[in-house]
Each structure stands twice: as structure tokens, then as C-alpha cells.
């Protein structure tokens, strides 16, 4: 018996003429258990699963057996099996007590990944199916609504997403019950592969129209370059010789568009930019920059490299690789999946996470994914927002993305260890979904560095994993454009974590057996991109479309080449390993196809059997893209200074800030993600006796039996972009580094990843401030260079997403310039890992770092409705010195807790350290006020000056700590108290605030209503019992020269 | 005598590495075997004293958690599995492994051999008594156990992490619950997922099959605890999860059968 069960596709044979359809409704014994809450739908909703079977022979008995043994849980469910071929339908009545008036059947559109159906189909073998019978399965959900509805339109995005699913609505009535949906949705018939010649004999308008109508996302100069290339006499002569038409075929045009897409080639980061700085009208500066990427990102890394012998592979592979110890290397990659998540939040986020997992599997000869990170930037679903065509409601985006990352990470067995959630109404233009994955690989496989690739001419091209379908066509080009009415539906797809998990297990075993010479993932651009890129190493490749396994017939040739169908990797192997690789694939239940071979002929050829359909010169494909020339223009816009008296009730302010969407607990997300699988976890997202203490960074072990810890953190502050993206960038880096250091990472071990998500920075009539947005990009890059070189923290990988706008022709929305910095570092011994919550009453609390007047962009100012141009600025030299000094104290075992100061400033950080503990704190601001005498009291405690850390130490270490930090800005803040409350004193005598830890905890833990799906009990903010002193007296009103 | 365990992997199981590591720490020699390799040669199972079904998402939790794995094991291993259990060898299912054991009918199990593989209970979507569905939960929870159970010797009140979306025990009828809770049951101290009787883990009447939703393999080092300082203060030495694996080793030394 062949136990290995490749996921056989039901569509490999042509669609048979005869078909028998069965429908199985799996209903609960107790309807209460099927009751669900659907935000946005009135009344009760009951849901249950439904299956369709299409068989080539009648096999009712078998379907009954499948239902009994596989589809139902006998403790909870019963099933009604209907046989459409006889029209002999069992009439079945819904219990009247449900009051259901409408029945909605939701199922996937043809070609969309149906994981439930796939699982059922591939396990029918165990239930002795009748011989010679082809069986196809589809799955869906039935919803029973109390509301009476006539069309499914009102249910779009509430019960189904019309881009991937269809819904059918019937009124519940015994007579109509007969009309259950018995149709099995068929697929189109197969057609021979065909390449369509596309004439480029067009004027400029024609070229632009062609680019737009085919979703090529190419600019006019790029289209002209292609036009010129194909009219070159040598090219025409060669094509004639090859039997190809003179004009490009649709395959060639599409492959060029994928390869040259902003998504794949990062044209804006590689552009020549003329930057004009008008911030000082007396001294206008003009600078020419030849590639932001080379100048500032690679440039910073090159500058740091002499100090960093651990850097192994940078900027050339799917992820950056760093040496971990004498046996091991680690790698890290962060991707964005904004555009797909905007259209289908669940599928977009799911394919985002499994996609970046594949980047890790495809780094070097393959790495094992050991952690995921997720960072989301959304419009707050609890606030009203614009709703234009194709925009999904904000709550549905948050819920869908949350579920997508949950399924993607949990089902893949990769812990989600670190993340962030940031709200700004402007993310209505596009939600940002950053998905990161870190991996571990042996330093060497078969005596050769495992972080390199060794593909040779003559090696076979192997496609492993899923099959190719119409899903995910034009993903690369579509994400290179604004979201609009015409965004292609096919770009949306669902992932299949199970198929990918099997493939990942297979790949790591194949790597260790030395069977692979190279590997890369099929992400954006599909085979076109994966094979096209690998071909660069040998100097050519040929693929045969007849060997590419399809999910179903009916794909056009170009679609098969550029499809981004998920769960596929492209491998290269020497021919002698073919059998061994196949055996391994059979064991893991992974489908393999040899789809071609690598050569050194200088071309990327696509054939169907013997017929050549496309041939592209590799040199033109990869280097023919003309460099963009862009203009950037920087002018400082005066921002208003708005400020009033400090608010009278500090307690109210503190509680409101703790509830603030960008400060409050993320527990409702964190608990949904498995952050411990693989057994490496040390510092989890929430720690302490109550498992509530927010942690600044994740700490995990790379090897179970060694003490070193891997530290992962992130930094993100788009709230500063409106002032100056230079400071936005330096603050993001500082935040990521500071978080890692707070958890115990050695500041000299840190590596960084940059992920830019920008509004379109190219000027056009629809984007009049494009040049300013480009200037913002330039300034952010300069900021990155300045801080990374001084922190000696290299960039090992990064990505940019440059078209985060919504434009339906009338309304145009743009996100604020956003930069995510992810950091990875090393803690020599996890026993020294730090967490944020206070540990022991009597411990002394210190603040490291000077507090300056930095209210611009702060949560406090946002809350008060104030504004100020002094945004947080990083004092890089002092900050880095502080971090190194702090790390020595951590490694000396002197600290009991450590927490970074971030959104909300000093008082919020103190509150968080209390929230996570069973204790309280008595804080006296005397020393802090003396250290920063020019600050009004509210600025002192709410200013968001970067690079500051709060830590606690046992009283016996007082002398050691104060001596150790003698030359550093160390400020004594108070003591941890047994009493679970925060007491705040001003200059020893005046009590500003006494507030119970429970109230701090309740405020901070209150989840946004829409996210949790459960309306939380209201926590009312009441006046606190703080003293009557008038703190307006100590306010400092002059705002002159306070720049730190 | 070497104590050997077969740790199942493949098809979406994903805790095999840390489970094997935990066994090794407890002095049991683990072999990680792919389910397709085991089904190709089921008799190899008899070379082991312990079958461990680790946590994970077998078959992506599609249809329902552990269901498809149970069907595959029932039809792929057949009598070898029933013989393995009847001989008193140990079977331990963690999280998704527990779900599969319940759907196979091995748990709560029956003292009647003819009933060995009949499903009498299930593990399904978390739902609290107020109807709230917390979905997937990753959190450390307090557990308590009756000390008569050999798997839990030396443990009475301890913490382990849960990481599941379908951990709510539902029984066909109440007698199943009464019989299942024969004084050898692992309980949640507070209701975390709506499980009948706050049951977190079960053994069969013979005492050689254990299934539990919490993850003992995620608590074999003090540094894994969310409150490591408290863990050191209150612990009786070994982290709770490691103690559980050591108990398995002790049971294997004594022939596996619970007396």
C-alpha cells in the first residue's frame, strides 16, 4: 500500500460528462453550540458546515460512511445526506425555536483554495472508496439568520467576502427547503498552451494603455525600453531563428513586468534622486543621490562591517544571515502584505505569514523557521471611517488579519513571539500587515556553508509543494499600484498551512541529506521570479509548462508562469539525487515535479513540450530596466504650537492614557497566537505572576541545551512622520534597539531590518505632493544611516512597499510614511533576561536617560489635542553609551526588572511595571525634576524622549549601581511597595496621585470593543484622590530654546 | 533497560522536537517517526514502550481537531494500536494528540475491550458558560490533580501552558464523565475553556493512556515559566512538565501498567 498521499488534485482529468452530486449538512445536536456572534448582524446567527461531493459513479453508501466516520463528531453532530441525482430529498425541518428566517449558504468561488475539502478528499483512501470513482469535494458554511434578507449584498464582508466566496440566500420555509444548493461548481475545460503575440507598434498613449489594461504596472520609459529592445535587428533576427514572433508574447511581457515590478526591483529605492532642501531659505541645498538603497542602507552596513565579523549573507538572498555560534547561523526577514490584506484580510495576512516563512525555508540551502513577528497598522475599528468602493470595514480588517496570522503561525508550528499594533485613521488608505520570520540553519551542510547556493548548469528545476492555479495572478504588479476599483480579483488568495508544513519538514530533511544545490520560494511573480532569479546564478534556465502541475485546467500559459499560488518552493538538484528526493517527498506527502533545467545559454526559455513559447535574454531581463530619475523637495512646514494649562486631574489623564488605543494591552491579540511552540520561549509577550506584564522584546533559545538567548524586538513611530521623517527613522531604530537592550540583548550584537511602507513618492497629476513624500523618504534613509552607523547595528535585510494609497478616481487617501525597524540580538545567558514588572517590595527604582522637552507626536499631546514642533530626538552617542553600560549591569545580575519608556512616557512605563506585578510603587519626582528643571510637571512625566529605561534593583545593590552609573544620567525614582498602588510625590512633600494597581490594570486591559467581539464591562474613569496642590504653579510656560 | 518512546510526526504535528527533548531529559530515548513511515510498517510500534502523540495542528484542524488523524491512525495502525494499549504500554497524547485519542475512543476509554475504539466524548471549540468563545488561547493555567494517578506522582497543584482552540471536553452522557473522572483526572483550577467538570486531562480505566490539553513539554526548564522567580520559589525542584515525563519513565521501569 502506498501510504504517502500526495494531495491529488481532482482536476487532473478532464471534467467527466456524468456527475453525481451529494450534499451533506452537518448540524449540531444542540443548536446553542452553533450560535455565533457576527459583528454587524442583528439577532442570533447559527452556523454549521456543509459539504458537496461530486462523483463519477453513484456511491451513496460511501458518502454515508464518509459522513459517519469523518465528517461528523458523533457526540455533537448529526448529518443530513442528500442525493441530488434522485431528487429524492429528505425533508428536514429546522427547529422552530431558532426563529431562523433566512438561510445563507457560503462557499468558495471556483479555484479558491478550500483547505477543508482538500483534507477530506485526500483522506478518503482510508475509508475504502469504490474503485474507479473520481470524487471531488467542496466545503462551505450555512448560516441561519433571524433577520429576513432577500439578497446576499448586505452580508458582504459580514458573512462572506465576494472576492473569494459566493453566498446564496433562501427564505426558510418548508417548501423552499427542497431547493438546497446542489450544484457542484465545475471548472473550465483544458486548452493547449498558447502564447499570444502582443504588438508594441504603439504610440506612447498606446503603450501606457497596454500597461494599464494588462496590469503590468510599467511606466512609459519602461514600456519604451521594451519596445526598443524588441525592435532591435539582432533581437528580431534571433527570434525569427527561434521560431518566435517578432513582437513579445504575452508570456514575455508578463515575465518582464513581474521582474521589473516595484515589488521585485525596488525601482524607487534604486532611482537617481535630486533632493532639494529648502528648510533654510538662505541656504538651499541640492544633493544628487544615486540609489537610496546603496547609499544609505548598504552604505550603513558597509560602514559597520569591520566591527561585525558575524555577518554572513546580506541583501542577496531571501533573508539576511548572521552567525550565531560555531555550529549555527540565524536569519531574519520581514515582509509586508498590505494590498492583499486590504482586499481579503484573512487570506492576505495568512499568505503573508506563510509567504515569509517560505523566505526562510528558501534562504541559503534552507533554514528552519523558529519565530514569527507581526506588526499591524490599522484605522482604529472603534472609530468611524471613510467607506469607499472596495474598502472592507475596519473591524473586518482587524478580525480577518488577526485570524489570518493566527492560522498561518499556529498551524505551521511557528511561535509568534513579538509584534505591535498601531492605530491611525490614515491607515484606512491601506492597512499595513508586516509579517516577519526568523530561522536557524547549520553553518555548514556537507562541509559547505549552508547560507550559500550551489546551483550548476545541468541541475534540474524542481517545483515542490502546492499546484499552480489562477490564484495570485498579478500580485507583484498589483501591489505596485494604488488600491482602486480595478485592482485584480485574482491577486487575492487563501493559504494552506498544512501543505506548507509538510513541504517545510520535507525541505529541511532534504537539506540535511545534502540533496539540494539551491532553493528559493515562489512568492511574488511565481515561477517567473523564482526560476528567473535562480537562472542568474548559472546563466540560464528552461522550463516546460507541460510538466507544471495545475490545480485545474483552463489556465493561460502566462498565468501558469506568473501565478503566485502558495505553498510552492523551487529547488535545484543534481540529476543523480532525483530518486532520493522523490522518496523523501513521498514520505512527507509532498508533490514534486521536475519542470526544467538550468543551463548557461544566457536565456530564460519557456516551452510547452517541444514548442518554444518564450525566450528572454537574462541580461535584458535583469539589467535592462532603466534607472528612474526622480525629484525630491523638502520644505519645513510650520506646525502650530498649541498648549494650555496642565489638566487638573492627573489620575484621569493616566487612566485615559492607559486605555488609549496605542498604549493599552494587546492581550486580546497575543493570546490568540501560540508564542511557545517549539519549546524555545523564555520571555513571552506578557509575563509575571498575572501574565499581564508587557515585555519589550521576546527572548528565546536557539539550542535547548545552551544558555544563549535570541532577542527579537521592533520599533515603529509613524506618529512622528508629520514632523520630520529623519527623527521618525532614528526613533524607530532607537526603539527597536532599546527594547532589545531592555530584555537583555548585548547592544553590540544587534542587527536590524528595515521595512518601509510609504505613500506613493512619485509625482503625478493624481499625486501632487509626490516630491515631498520622496523627500520624506530621503530624510528617513539619512536618519537610518546616521543612527545605524553610530549604534554599529547593520541592516541585514529589508523591504519596501511604495504605493500605499487608495484612489478610486475621486477620493485619494494615503498612509503616513511608516518605517518598521525589527531588531535581533544576543543575550549571553537567558538566566539574565529582564522583564518589565516589579519583582520585590523594597526594590529601588531608577530611570536611565535624560528627559527633555519632546512633546511633539506624544500620546499625551494627542490626548490633550495639543501640538508642538519639538519631536523626540535621539542623542545617539549618549544613548548607545547608556545601553552598553546598562548591559553590563544586567550581566552582573544586578537588575530585577527593566522596561523601556515609550508611548505615554515615564508615568505610563511605571504604571505598566506595576500592572504586571503584584506590588505597587512609591515614586518621588524630585530627582527627575532637578535633572530636567526646565520642564513643566506634565511634560516631565509624559514627554516621550527616546533612549530611556526604567529598572529596579535590590537595595543591597544600591552602591554598586550608583557607582556603576556614576558618569551616566541615572535618576532615582522611588521604591517598589508591598501596597498594590501607585503613589506619586512631587518634591517630597506634595502627593500628586494615589491610585490602586487594580484600577491601572482595569484601564490598561480594557480591549477595544470591536476587536474582542465582546463588549467589555465599562470601566468608568472617576476623579482620583490626588491632592489639591495646584501644579499649574510649577509649570514652565516658556517654550523657547528647549531643544535637547 | 533502555526505555524507548516513539514520537509521532508529520501531517501538521508540530511539537515533536520539544517533546522528544523532554523525553530525553527524563531518561527516555525518543525516536521521531513520520506517520507515513509508521503506517507503512505498523509492527515497529511494538519496539517501543511509549507512544507519544505530540501537539500541533494535524491536518490543519480541518473538519475538527484530531479527527482526521484519528481516522488515519484507526485505519492505518488498526490492531497494532489496540494490542499496544492492551499490553499496558504507555500512550500519551498532548493537546492535538489528546484530541486524536478522544476521537479514536481510546479516551476516556472503557474497561470493556470490545468498546476499545468507540468515541464517547469529544474535545471541541472553547466556549465559556456565558457563551463567550475565547477562540485559541495561549496562557499558563493552574492545574490540580489527584495524586493517585501515577502519571502525576509528586504533583498536586502546578502550572502548565495551554495552547488550543478546541479543548472543551463534552461527553455523550453524564455517566461517561462520572466514569472518566475515576480519581485520576487533571483539572483546571478555574474554568478556562468551558470543559465539562473543568477536565484538562484524562486517563483510561487501565491507567496506561493519558491525554491532556496543557503542554508539559513546554515546562521542562524554570526559564520557560512566565514568572520564573515564583516558579523557583514555589517549585519542589523539577519543573512540573519535566516531573510528568520523569513519571512516565518510572512507569516504564515498572512495566507500564498502573496497579
Characterize the structure shown.
- The complex is a heterodimer of chains A (1044) and B (259).
- Chain A has 1044 residues and is α+β, with helices and mostly antiparallel strands.
- Chain A is globular, with a radius of gyration of 30 Å.
- Chain A has a domain at 20-179.
- Chain A is built from 30 helices and 42 strands.
- Chain B has 259 residues and is an alpha/beta fold.
- Chain B has one domain: Rossmann fold (3-Layer(aba) Sandwich).
- Helices cover 28% and strands 22% of the residues of chain B.
- The model of chain B has no long low-confidence stretch (mean pLDDT 90).
- Classes of the chains: A alpha+beta (1044), B alpha/beta (259).
Highlighted features:
heterodimer, A: 1044 residues, alpha+beta, seven-stranded antiparallel sheet, seven-stranded mixed sheet, 30 helices, 42 strands, 29% helix, disordered N terminus, disordered C terminus, B: 259 residues, alpha/beta, Rossmann fold, nine-stranded mixed sheet, two-stranded antiparallel sheet, 8 helices, 11 strands
Give the topology.
The complex is a heterodimer of chains A (1044) and B (259).
Chain A: E1 20-28, E2 35-36, E3 45-55, H1 60-71, E4 77-83, E5 102-108, H2 115-122, E6 135-145, E7 165-171, H3 204-213, H4 220-230, H5 233-242, H6 250-259, H7 262-265, H8 267-270, E8 272-277, E9 285-290, H9 292-304, E10 311-313, E11 320-323, E12 328-336, H10 338-343, H11 345-361, E13 368-378, H12 394-410, E14 416-423, E15 432-442, E16 444-445, E17 448-449, E18 460-465, H13 475-478, H14 497-512, E19 518-521, H15 526-538, E20 541-544, H16 557-562, E21 568-573, H17 578-588, E22 592-598, E23 603-608, E24 611-617, H18 618-623, E25 629-634, H19 650-659, H20 667-670, E26 681-683, E27 686-687, E28 693-694, E29 698-701, E30 709-716, H21 725-743, E31 751-757, H22 770-791, E32 795-801, E33 805-807, E34 812-814, E35 818-827, E36 844-848, H23 859-864, H24 876-891, E37 895-900, H25 905-915, E38 920-924, H26 926-931, H27 937-942, E39 949-953, H28 958-964, E40 970-977, E41 981-986, E42 990-996, H29 997-1005, H30 1009-1012
Parallel strand pairs in A: 8-25, 13-14, 20-23, 31-32, 38-41
Antiparallel strand pairs in A: 1-3, 1-4, 2-3, 3-6, 5-6, 5-7, 8-9, 10-11, 11-12, 12-15, 13-15, 16-17, 18-21, 18-22, 19-21, 20-22, 23-24, 26-29, 27-28, 29-30, 30-35, 31-35, 33-34, 36-39, 36-40, 37-39, 38-40, 41-42
Helix pairs in contact in A: 9-22, 11-12, 11-14, 14-17, 19-29, 21-22, 21-24, 25-29
Chain B: E1 4-9, H1 16-25, E2 29-34, H2 35-40, E3 50-53, H3 67-77, H4 79-86, E4 90-94, H5 96-104, E5 121-124, E6 137-145, E7 157-164, E8 168-171, H6 174-180, E9 186-188, E10 199-203, E11 209-212, H7 228-234, H8 240-253
Parallel strand pairs in B: 1-2, 1-3, 3-4, 4-11
Antiparallel strand pairs in B: 5-8, 6-7, 6-9, 9-10, 10-11
Helix pairs in contact in B: 3-5
Amino acid at each position: 500500500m502506498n501510504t504517502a498521499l500526495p494531495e491529488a488534485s481532482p482536476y487532473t482529468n478532464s471534467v467527466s460528462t456524468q456527475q453525481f452530486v451529494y450534499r451533506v449538512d452537518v448540524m449540531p445536536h444542540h443548536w446553542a453550540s452553533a450560535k455565533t456572534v457576527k459583528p454587524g448582524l442583528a439577532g442570533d446567527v447559527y452556523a454549521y458546515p456543509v459539504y458537496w461531493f461530486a462523483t463519477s459513479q453513484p456511491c451513496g453508501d460511501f458518502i454515508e460512511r464518509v459522513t459517519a466516520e469523518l465528517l461528523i463528531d458523533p457526540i455533537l453532530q448529526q448529518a443530513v445526506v442528500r442525493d441530488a441525482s434522485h431528487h429524492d430529498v429528505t425533508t428536514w425541518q429546522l427547529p422552530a425555536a431558532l426563529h431562523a428566517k433566512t438561510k445563507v449558504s457560503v462557499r468558495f468561488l471556483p479555484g479558491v483554495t478550500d483547505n477543508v475539502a482538500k483534507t477530506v478528499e485526500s483522506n478518503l483512501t482510508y475509508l475504502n472508496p469504490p474503485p474507479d470513482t473520481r470524487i471531488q469535494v467542496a466545503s462551505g458554511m450555512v448560516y441561519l439568520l433571524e433577520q429576513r434578507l432577500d439578497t446576499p449584498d448586505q452580508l458582504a464582508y459580514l458573512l462572506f467576502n465576494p472576492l473569494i466566496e459566493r453566498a446564496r440566500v433562501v427564505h426558510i420555509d418548508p417548501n423552499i427547503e427542497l431547493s438546497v444548493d446542489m450544484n457542484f461548481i465545475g471548472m473550465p475545460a483544458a486548452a493547449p498552451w498558447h502564447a499570444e503575440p502582443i504588438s508594441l507598434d504603439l504610440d506612447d498613449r498606446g503603450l501606457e494603455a497596454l500597461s494599464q489594461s494588462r496590469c503590468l504596472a510599467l511606466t512609459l520609459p519602461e514600456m519604451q525600453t521594451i519596445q526598443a529592445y524588441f525592435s532591435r535587428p539582432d533581437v528580431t533576427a534571433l527570434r525569427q531563428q527561434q521560431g518566435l514572433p517578432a513582437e513579445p508574447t504575452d508570456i514575455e511581457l508578463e515575465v518582464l513586468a513581474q521582474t521589473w515590478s516595484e515589488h521585485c526591483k525596488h525601482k524607487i529605492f534604486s532611482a537617481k534622486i535630486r533632493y532639494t532642501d529648502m528648510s533654510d531659505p538662505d541656504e538651499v541645498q541640492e544633493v544628487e543621490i544615486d540609489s537610496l538603497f546603496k547609499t544609505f542602507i548598504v552604505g550603513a552596513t558597509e560602514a559597520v562591517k569591520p566591527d561585525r565579523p558575524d555577518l554572513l549573507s546580506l541583501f542577496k538572498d531571501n533573508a539576511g544571515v548572521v552567525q550565531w555560534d560555531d555550529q549555527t547561523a540565524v536569519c531574519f526577514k520581514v515582509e509586508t502584505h498590505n494590498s492583499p490584506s486590504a482586499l481579503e484580510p484573512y487570506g492576505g495576512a495568512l499568505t503573508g505569514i506563510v509567504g515569509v516563512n517560505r523566505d526562510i525555508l528558501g534562504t541559503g540551502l534552507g533554514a528552519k523557521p523558529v519565530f514569527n513577528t507581526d506588526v499591524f497598522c490599522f484605522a482604529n475599528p472603534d472609530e468611524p471611517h471613510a467607506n469607499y468602493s472596495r474598502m472592507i470595514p475596519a473591524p473586518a480588517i482587524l478580525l480577518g488579519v488577526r485570524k489570518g496570522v493566527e492560522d498561518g503561525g499556529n498551524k505551521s508550528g511557528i511561535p509568534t513571539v513579538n509584534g505591535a499594533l498601531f492605530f491611525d485613521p490614515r491607515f484606512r488608505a491601506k492597512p499595513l500587515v508586516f509579517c516577519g520570520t526568523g530561522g536557524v540553519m547549520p553553518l555548514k551542510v556537507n562541509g559547505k556553508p549552508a547560507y550559500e547556493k550551489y546551483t550548476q548548469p545541468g541541475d534540474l528545476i524542481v517545483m515542490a509543494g502546492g499546484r499552480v492555479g489562477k490564484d495570485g495572478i498579478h500580485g507583484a504588479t498589483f501591489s505596485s499600484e494604488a488600491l482602486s476599483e480595478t485592482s485584480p480579483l485574482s491577486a487575492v488568495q487563501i493559504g494552506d498551512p498544512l501543505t506548507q508544513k509538510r513541504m517545510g519538514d520535507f525541505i529541511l530533511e532534504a537539506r540535511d541529506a545534502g540533496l539540494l544545490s539551491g532553493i528559493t520560494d515562489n512568492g511574488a511573480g511565481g515561477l517567473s521570479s523564482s526560476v528567473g532569479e535562480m537562472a542568474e546564478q548559472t546563466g540560464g534556465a528552461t522550463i516546460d509548462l507541460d510538466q507544471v502541475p495545475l490545480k485545474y485546467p483552463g489556465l493561460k500559459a502566462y498565468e501558469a508562469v506568473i501565478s503566485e499560488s502558495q505553498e510552492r518552493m523551487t529547488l535545484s538538484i543534481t540529476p543523480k539525487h532525483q530518486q532520493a528526493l522523490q522518496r523523501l517527498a513521498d514520505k512527507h506527502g509532498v508533490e514534486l515535479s521536475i519542470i526544467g533545467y538550468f543551463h548557461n545559454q544566457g536565456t530564460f526559455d519557456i516551452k510547452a513540450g517541444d514548442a518554444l513559447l518564450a525566450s528572454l535574454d537574462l541580461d535584458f531581463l535583469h539589467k535592462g530596466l532603466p534607472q528612474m530619475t526622480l525629484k525630491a523637495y523638502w520644505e519645513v512646514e510650520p506646525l502650530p504650537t498649541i498648549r494650555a494649562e496642565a489638566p487638573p486631574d492627573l489620575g484621569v489623564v493616566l487612566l485615559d492614557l492607559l486605555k488609549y488605543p496605542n498604549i493599552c494591552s494587546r492581550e486580546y491579540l497575543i493570546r490568540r497566537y501560540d508564542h511557545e511552540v517549539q519549546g524555545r520561549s523564555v520571555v513571552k509577550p506578557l509575563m509575571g505572576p498575572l501574565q499581564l506584564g508587557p515585555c519589550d522584546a521576546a527572548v528565546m533559545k536557539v539550542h535547548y541545551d545552551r544558555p544563549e538567548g535570541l532577542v527579537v524586538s521592533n520599533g515603529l513611530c509613524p506618529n512622528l512622520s508629520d514632523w520630520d521623517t529623519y527623527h521618525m527613522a532614528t526613533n524607530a531604530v532607537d526603539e527597536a534597539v532599546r527594547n532589545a537592550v531592555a530584555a537583555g540583548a548585548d547592544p553590540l550584537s544587534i542587527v536590524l531590518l528595515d521595512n518601509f511602507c510609504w505613500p506613493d513618492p512619485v509625482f503625478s497629476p493624481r499625486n501632487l505632493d509626490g516630491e515631498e513624500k520622496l523627500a520624506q523618504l530621503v530624510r528617513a534613509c539619512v536618519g537610518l544611516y546616521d543612527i545605524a552607523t553610530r549604534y554599529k547595528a547593520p541592516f541585514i535585510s529589508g523591504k519596501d512597499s511604495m504605493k500605499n494609497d487608495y484612489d478610486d478616481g475621486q477620493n485619494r487617501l494615503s498612509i503616513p510614511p511608516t518605517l518598521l525597524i525589527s531588531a535581533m540580538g544576543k543575550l549571553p545567558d537567558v538566566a539574565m533576561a529582564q522583564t518589565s514588572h516589579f519583582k520585590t517590595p523594597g526594590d529601588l527604582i531608577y530611570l536611565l536617560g535624560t528627559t527633555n522637552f519632546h512633546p511633539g507626536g506624544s500620546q499625551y499631546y494627542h490626548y490633550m489635542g495639543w501640538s508642538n514642533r519639538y519631536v523626540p530626538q535621539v542623542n545617539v552617542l549618549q544613548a548607545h553609551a547608556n545601553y552598553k553600560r546598562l548591559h553590563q549591569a544586567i550581566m552582573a545580575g544586578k537588575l530585577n526588572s527593566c522596561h523601556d519608556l515609550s508611548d505615554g512616557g515615564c508615568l505610563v512605563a511605571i504604571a505598566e511595571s506595576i500592572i504586571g506585578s503584584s506590588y505597587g510603587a512609591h515614586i518621588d519626582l524630585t530627582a527627575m525634576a532637578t535633572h530636567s528643571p526646565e520642564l513643566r510637571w506634565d511634560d516631565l512625566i509624559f514627554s516621550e524622549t527616546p533612549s530611556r529605561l526604567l529598572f529596579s534593583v535590590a537595595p543591597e545593590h544600591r552602591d554598586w549601581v550608583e557607582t556603576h552609573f556614576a558618569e551616566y544620567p541615572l535618576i532615582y525614582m522611588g521604591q517598589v511597595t508591598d501596597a498594590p498602588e501607585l503613589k506619586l510625590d512631587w518634591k517630597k512633600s506634595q502627593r500628586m496621585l494615589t491610585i490602586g494597581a487594580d484600577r491601572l490594570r482595569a484601564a490598561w486591559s480594557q480591549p477595544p470593543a470591536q476587536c474582542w467581539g465582546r463588549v467589555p464591562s465599562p470601566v468608568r474613569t472617576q476623579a482620583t484622590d490626588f491632592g489639591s496642590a495646584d501644579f499649574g504653579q510649577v509649570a514652565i510656560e516658556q517654550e523657547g530654546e528647549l531643544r535637547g | 533497560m533502555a526505555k524507548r518512546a516513539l514520537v509521532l510526526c508529520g501531517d501538521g504535528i508540530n511539537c515533536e522536537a520539544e517533546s522528544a527533548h523532554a523525553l530525553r531529559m527524563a531518561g527516555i530515548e525518543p525516536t521521531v517517526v513520520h506517520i507515513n513511515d509508521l503506517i507503512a510498517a505498523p509492527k515497529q510500534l511494538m519496539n517501543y514502550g511509549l507512544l507519544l502523540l505530540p501537539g500541533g495542528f494535524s491536518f490543519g484542524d480541518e473538519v475538527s481537531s484530531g479527527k482526521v488523524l484519528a481516522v488515519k491512525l484507526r485505519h492505518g495502525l488498526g490492531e497494532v494500536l489496540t494490542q499496544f494499549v492492551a499490553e499496558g504500554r504507555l500512550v500519551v497524547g498532548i493537546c492535538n494528540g489528546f484530541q486524536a485519542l478522544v476521537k479514536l475512543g481510546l479516551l476516556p476509554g472503557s474497561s470493556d475491550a470490545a468498546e476499545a475504539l468507540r468515541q464517547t466524548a469529544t474535545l471541541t471549540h472553547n466556549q465559556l458558560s456565558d457563551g463567550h468563545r475565547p477562540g485559541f488561547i495561549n496562557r499558563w493555567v493552574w492545574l490540580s490533580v489527584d495524586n493517585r494517578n501515577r502519571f502525576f506522582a509528586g504533583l498536586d497543584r502546578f502550572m502548565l501552558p495551554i495552547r488550543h482552540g478546541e479543548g472543551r471536553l463534552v461527553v455523550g452522557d453524564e455517566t461517561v464523565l462520572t466514569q472518566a473522572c475515576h480519581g485520576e483526572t487533571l483539572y483546571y483550577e478555574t474554568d478556562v475553556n468551558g470543559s465539562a467538570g473543568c477536565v484538562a486531562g484524562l486517563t483510561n480505566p487501565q491507567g496506561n493512556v493519558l491525554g491532556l490539553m496543557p503542554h508539559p513539554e513546554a515546562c521542562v526548564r524554570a526559564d520557560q515559566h512566565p514568572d520564573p522567580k515564583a516558579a523557583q520559589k514555589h517549585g519542589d525542584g523539577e519543573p512540573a512538565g519535566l516531573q510528568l515525563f520523569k513519571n512516565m519513565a518510572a512507569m516504564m521501569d515498572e512495566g507500564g501498567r498502573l496497579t
